[in-house]
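tokens incoming
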């Protein structure tokens, strides 16, 4: 691709920008639009390297009347969102959901051909895809800054762009589409972009269900149909009817770690909402099938089922519709707290699947394969993927909450103090109680409110809402007893261990000990009887990077996976790794294809779970065409990692990474943990203090409301640094590691060898390069100039920026490039196009932060809203914000 934006993308940006300009002119007058253009022109001058242009922009922004601050921020925020729509539209049209270097676009058909050339039989390809189990876990982490009502308008704007592009021979259609586009942009401009209330966990779950209804419901059967066609060409057969290589799970309404708003009552409500929504969606499918399957010819099995009726398929579907309607009514009654007196409901996937399968087999048996493989096959595929609950709901809770239950329990039963016991004592006690037939928890136990809530959660598990529950994840897990405690609580409350249990290893120390912990756990006969031959382990990216720095964390995650693969192989256990990735580099983000192929060989063996969160859900799955491509990317990556795994790192590379990670970790800790000026600097220069007022998600920004940076969650930690464009969490420490090694003889050669031959290291460099391109130390310096007035903090800021400049130079040396993103021009152009619209928001945000601090947080409602809009606009402009 040329260095210019693709013509269609450029045209659509212009169409949307012109329409926004007309809308603003109608509302605020042409003079205001001229003011916006002046600001944009100054920002472009500043970006061209003119120091005077940068200062003129700042001076102009500071002279703006107070009444103009909110509409100015809104104008730039709206343009950035419209630019994102144009780019999403472009990506969907040209199948560029993710960004790759030339020659590495993942295409499933090409990969199947390559696998055959590598000696894999057609049968092997079908079996691998049929047995593949990739679960994409939708999470509500608070990085989605755009209101759902605006997202719906933006989707409609995208439809208008499609209509305009496809109506070149029908000018009247284009005119209608442009009129509708103008209307939608006006609607968006006159809609408040900032939520006034923080969403509840149930609101977040409804948003997740809406993604399924509006996008995935169509994309899933389309994906399977495309996959079927590819397999017919490559292997001569279709994917088995019940195969579901890509499935969906959710944390929305189940992730209670640090979120007091997620209660047992909320989890129950979300589970019931999933049942209601699934029944409602299937009813739409069944009504269409009832209309279309009017045939009379059927096989003997169908005749035996429905009798000698004129329209056997309609008869069977009518019965199924009645049960699904009853299911929907039952779920609604449960949600309303009413009793249900209707007929039998659908409780399992098979109860829905079997009648549809009977119709399919009958049609095939009588030679009506074309009809069988039409909309009926689409519904069968949906049932295979979504079941009767749409997603499986994971539950997550922090290990300390479970330990608190055991501490209170052992104290009240005069058994001692659980927290003071050794790990061996805890294991012995827990295993003994798991085998005991007598109850441990007294029937009318008077416990604390927190413990009662924890036990109520296990009562939801015990209620067994069909097939709705996924995995129970233990955050901050560190010992086998953390897993055994959850198993015991499940058994005590529900009589059995009703969910798979996955420890989440997050900190650097926990990652380093992950293999040993799982080895000791699997060595316990009592546990193996419960868990069988499957074990899921979650790898934490956010907290490990916040704890240790990005480079040290990435290497610890890699080594932890290697150790876990080895342990599970030795114990004869099938391992599923669950990657807790976020949208940013600092949280394990980046193109999914490259990320999966950079994992250790053997760690992706047809099985993978990964979080998709916040705004990345919308970017990857918010529209059917993009969702379709995203599923293909995941399938490609997991198939390639399973059949054509990456090479194992050479021993000398491992030694290099040990040295690099150690140097980077010491440098990172030396600043974040040991410099007394760091926390004051962070709080002074970033909008961290104001961030808590931005109602992004249901979860508080801190695990605890007291304490320092260590209590801040990884998402707001990264979000705050992103807002000022320093991006510190993703690079601090890496510059020292690379620079020190390059200064040694042969250092640059070995790093470049790792870059070219080791996918893990090459992918890390790609992500670092993108991060550095989005960062801007001059913008960070302006925040400091405006908000920091202590010499020691200013000195720290200058040292941080100098570290960044040093890393920038070193990365260019390693990549052998004159500028960043030379090989991925689309990303570079997207950043350059957005900068003149983001820069004014930075200037305004720094000004508003200072005014807010001067007024001790008591600025006017309009200025407070303007501050929130700057955060939303900067996040939209940089896209992967948290």
């Amino acid at each position: 691709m040329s260095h210019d934006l693709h013509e269609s993308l450029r045209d659509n940006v212009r169409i949307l920008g012109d329409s926004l300009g007309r809308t603003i002119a109608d509302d605020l007058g042409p003079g205001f639009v001229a003011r916006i253009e002046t600001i944009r022109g100054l920002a472009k001058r500043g970006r061209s390297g003119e120091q005077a242009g940068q200062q003129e922009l700042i001076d102009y922004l500071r002279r703006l009347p107070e009444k103009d601050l909110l509409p100015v921020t809104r104008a730039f925020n709206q343009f950035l969102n419209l630019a994102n729509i144009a780019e999403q539209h472009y990506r969907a049209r040209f199948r560029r959901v993710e960004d790759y270097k030339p020659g590495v676009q993942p295409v499933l058909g090409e990969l199947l051909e390559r696998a055959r050339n590598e000696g894999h039989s057609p049968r092997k390809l079908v079996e691998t895809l049929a047995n593949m189990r990739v679960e994409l876990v939708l999470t509500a982490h608070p990085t989605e800054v755009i209101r759902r009502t605006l997202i719906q308008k933006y989707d409609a704007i995208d439809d208008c762009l499609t209509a305009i592009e496809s109506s070149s021979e029908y000018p009247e259609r284009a005119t209608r589409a442009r009129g509708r586009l103008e209307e939608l942009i006006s609607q968006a401009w006159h809609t408040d972009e900032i939520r006034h209330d923080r969403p509840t966990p149930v609101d977040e779950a409804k948003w997740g269900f809406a993604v399924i209804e509006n996008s995935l419901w169509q994309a899933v059967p389309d994906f399977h149909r495309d996959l079927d066609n590819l397999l017919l060409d490559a292997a001569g057969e279709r994917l088995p009817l019940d195969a579901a290589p890509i499935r969906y799970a959710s944390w929305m309404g189940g992730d209670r770690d640090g979120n007091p708003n997620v209660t047992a009552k909320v989890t129950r409500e979300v589970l019931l909402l999933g049942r209601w929504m699934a029944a409602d969606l299937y009813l739409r499918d069944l009504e269409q099938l009832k209309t279309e399957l009017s045939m009379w010819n059927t096989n003997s099995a169908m005749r035996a089922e429905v009798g000698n009726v004129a329209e056997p398929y309609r008869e069977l579907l009518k019965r199924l519709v009645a049960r699904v309607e009853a299911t929907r009514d039952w779920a609604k009654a449960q949600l309303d707290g009413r009793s249900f007196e209707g007929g039998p409901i659908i409780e399992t996937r098979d109860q829905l699947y079997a009648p549809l399968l009977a119709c399919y087999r009958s049609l095939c048996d009588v030679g009506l394969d074309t009809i069988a493989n039409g909309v009926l096959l689409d519904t069968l595929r949906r049932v295979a993927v979504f079941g009767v609950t749409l997603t499986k709901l994971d539950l997550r809770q922090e290990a300390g909450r479970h330990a608190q239950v055991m501490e209170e329990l052992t104290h009240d039963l005069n058994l001692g103090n659980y927290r003071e016991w050794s790990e061996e004592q805890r294991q012995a006690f827990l295993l003994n109680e798991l085998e005991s037939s007598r109850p441990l928890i007294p029937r009318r136990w008077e416990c604390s409110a927190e413990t009662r809530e924890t036990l109520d959660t296990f009562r939801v598990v015990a209620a067994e809402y069909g097939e709705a529950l996924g995995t129970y994840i233990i955050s901050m897990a560190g010992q086998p007893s953390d897993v055994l405690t959850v198993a015991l609580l499940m058994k005590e409350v529900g009589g059995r261990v009703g969910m798979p249990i996955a420890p989440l290893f997050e900190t650097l120390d926990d990652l380093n000990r992950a293999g040993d912990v799982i080895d000791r756990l699997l060595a316990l006969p009592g546990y193996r009887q419960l868990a069988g031959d499957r074990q899921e382990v979650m790898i934490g990216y956010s907290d490990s990077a916040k704890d240790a720095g990005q480079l040290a964390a990435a290497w610890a995650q890699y080594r932890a996976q290697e150790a876990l693969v080895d342990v599970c192989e030795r114990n004869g256990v099938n391992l599923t790794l669950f990657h807790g990735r976020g949208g940013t580099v600092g949280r394990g983000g980046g193109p999914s294809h490259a990320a999966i192929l950079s994992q250790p060989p053997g760690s992706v063996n047809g099985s993978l779970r990964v979080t998709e969160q916040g705004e990345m859900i919308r970017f990857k799955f918010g529209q059917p065409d993009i969702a379709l491509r995203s599923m293909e990317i995941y399938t490609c990556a997991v198939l390639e990692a399973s059949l054509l795994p990456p090479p194992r790192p050479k021993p000398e590379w491992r030694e290099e990474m040990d040295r690099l990670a150690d140097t980077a970790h010491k440098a990172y800790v030396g600043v974040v943990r040991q410099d007394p000026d760091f926390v004051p600097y962070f709080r002074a220069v970033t909008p961290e203090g104001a961030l808590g007022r931005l109602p992004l998600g249901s979860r508080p920004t801190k695990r605890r409301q007291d304490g320092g940076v260590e209590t801040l969650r990884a998402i707001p930690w990264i979000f705050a640094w992103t807002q000022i464009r320093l991006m510190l969490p993703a690079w601090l420490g890496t510059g020292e590691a690379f620079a020190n090694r390059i200064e040694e003889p042969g250092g640059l050669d070995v790093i470049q060898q790792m870059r070219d031959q080791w996918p893990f290291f090459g992918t890390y460099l790609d992500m670092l390069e993108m991060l550095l391109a989005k960062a801007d130390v001059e913008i960070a310096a302006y925040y400091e100039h405006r908000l920091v007035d202590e010499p020691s903090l200013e000195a720290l800021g200058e040292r941080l920026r100098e570290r960044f400049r040093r890393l920038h130079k070193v990365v260019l040396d390693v990549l052998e490039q004159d500028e960043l993103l030379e090989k991925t021009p689309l990303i570079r152009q997207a950043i350059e196009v957005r900068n003149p619209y983001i820069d004014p928001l930075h200037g305004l945000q720094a000004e508003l932060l200072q005014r807010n601090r001067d007024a001790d947080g008591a600025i006017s409602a309009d200025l407070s809203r303007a501050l929130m809009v700057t955060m939303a606009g900067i996040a939209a402009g940089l896209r992967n914000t948290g």
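note: The CA atoms of residues 481 and 494 lie 19 Å apart.
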